[in-house]
Amino acid sequence: MKKIRHCERCTAYTLKGRCDKCGTETIINAPIKYYKDENIAKYRREIKGRMLKERGFL
Fold it and tell me: Which one of 1, 7, 37, 48 is most buried, by most CB atoms within 10 A?
């Protein structure tokens, strides 16, 4: 399975290693991995809780 890639120069998305529009190298546009023991996990949970309350899930 291929991952979606992003061109920083023209902000296009593609599955290829080079951008179809401008020909520059693309980077993998994947979120950072989640680690339970990381320093900012507390803030991530706080923001997610606020979002769930705003949407009426909590």
Answer: 7
